[in-house]
Design a protein that fits this description.
alpha+beta, elongated, six-stranded mixed beta sheet, 2 domains
Length: 308
């Protein structure tokens, strides 16, 4: 009913249509002067809904893109953009069974890799890899073999612990405590009209740094424009290294930071003697699940606040 040969032939046809693009882009990228933060190049293949996309990107390591460098090149570029490789027939259940049993995806990946090896320059300035999006294995063009992330990155050079991280977090934020108390005390001098219904303290993450702003709001979504102040500005919490990034993700340290900063702010709101008539809340930028009531120290479901 389905011809594996035809599907593979059509896939090769799509690749060959983009050979000139691949060669042109590869030549351009071979001659780039790369930034120091760009440690490798990644060819990323995405197979999704009858289509393929292929791009090249500068990376700090296997997980983190290198971008926005002022010294040297970083970036990404599309080589194939959502090119159709087949059309799903009406009897799609039978087709997907055929797709799985014939291992078409693996064969598509193998054909892509063969096509890349035939058309890439012999040398890139940086180590370069190929991956199928969201798969934890990588083909090294330099070594000519598939590797896992662990094989490429090796063992961690430094041991981390949540306790050590918390101690570091405490030291970093305590250095900011005088400024925080000073800014919070000024709240008692702020004159707000009846248009301001609440004060919202918002935590922003920017890589390894955080900032906290406070502003007056006329409701949960709109500012009144009567008050805005920076409580913490661009505070660096840790050094962003490959080893630490893995540890950070494995232990969900972002949630840990949110919880710690929430407790820290609650403590210093009380220590600063903040006495305002309207509610005060703490939350995370673009996260509308829960807000912390800075007066009671309790987390509140955002949806219940909307109903009030």
């Amino acid at each position: 009913m389905f011809s594996e040969k035809d599907y593979l032939h059509n896939y090769e046809k799509v690749l060959n249509m983009h050979t000139a693009d691949l060669q042109k882009i590869s030549e351009k990228w071979t001659n780039k002067k790369y930034a120091k933060k760009a440690k490798l190049l990644m060819f990323d293949l995405m197979l999704h809904n009858e289509k393929i996309s292929l791009s090249i990107e500068t990376m700090k390591d296997l997980y983190r893109p290198a971008f926005d460098s002022k010294k040297g090149f970083t970036g990404n570029q599309s080589i194939i953009s959502r090119a159709r490789i087949y059309k799903t027939p009406s009897n799609e259940n039978d087709f997907f069974q055929f797709y799985i049993e014939s291992k078409l995806e693996k064969k598509f990946v193998d054909l892509t890799l063969k096509w890349l090896e035939e058309n890439l320059p012999e040398q890139f300035p940086l180590p370069h890899y190929f991956q199928l999006s969201l798969e934890n294995k990588y083909y090294s063009f330099n070594l000519g073999k598939w590797q896992t992330a662990k094989e490429i990155m090796g063992k961690r050079k430094k041991e981390f612990s949540v306790k050590k991280f918390t101690n570091k977090l405490t030291k970093v934020l305590e250095k900011q405590s005088k400024k925080v108390v000073k800014e919070l005390k000024l709240l008692n001098q702020v004159k707000l009209s009846t248009e301001s219904k609440l004060l919202f303290m918002e935590l922003h993450f920017d890589g390894e740094r955080i900032s906290v702003n406070m502003r007056a709001m006329e409701d949960l979504a709109n500012e009144s424009g009567e008050y805005f102040e920076t409580i913490l500005e661009d505070v660096k919490l840790y050094k962003d290294t490959q080893d630490f990034y893995e540890f950070y993700e494995e232990h969900d340290l972002e949630s840990h930071i949110i919880s710690y900063v929430a407790g820290y702010m609650t403590h210093y709101v009380k220590q600063a003697g903040v006495d305002v008539a309207i509610p005060m809340y703490f939350g995370v930028h673009d996260d509308y699940d829960y807000w912390l009531d800075l007066k009671s120290g309790s987390w509140v479901d955002y949806d219940t606040l909307e109903d009030e």
